[in-house]
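Input sequence (137 aa), recorded before submission:
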Amino acid sequence: MCSSDFKGTNFFQWHNEKERRPEIVNLFHEVKNKYKIDTSKMIMGGMSNCGQMAIDMTFRGSIPIIGFIAFCPTDAKITDNEIIQTSESNIKGFIVAGKSDRRFLKHSEAMNEIIRKNNFQLIYETGDFGHQIPKDS
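Predicted structure, token format:
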């Protein structure tokens, strides 16, 4: 999926939370109506704001997602209560954060703590990079 929020050459983003959630839900339904999708195997992933959105939409149940992959997520606004409400599910997650990501590393660490204390399966990794997708080794 690609945001309609075009910012430059090959650069899209989802900054407006009020617009992005319905846009993602609508895109999901468009794809689901066109193709056969096994939602029991569907995950959502993203970088930065899109990583935050993947976490957010997974725990809020906006579309049927069983997990997320988030690279350097920004401030996911998930509360303990929202996570507890989904505690019966088999949600799995993977967060990758850059040790040099001065602005958002603390958010990744906070999400790691909240998700783990509510007994969800989460892999949390940090690497020697900033706010970027890490290079292949």
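Checked by second reader. The chain is about 35% helix and 20% strand.
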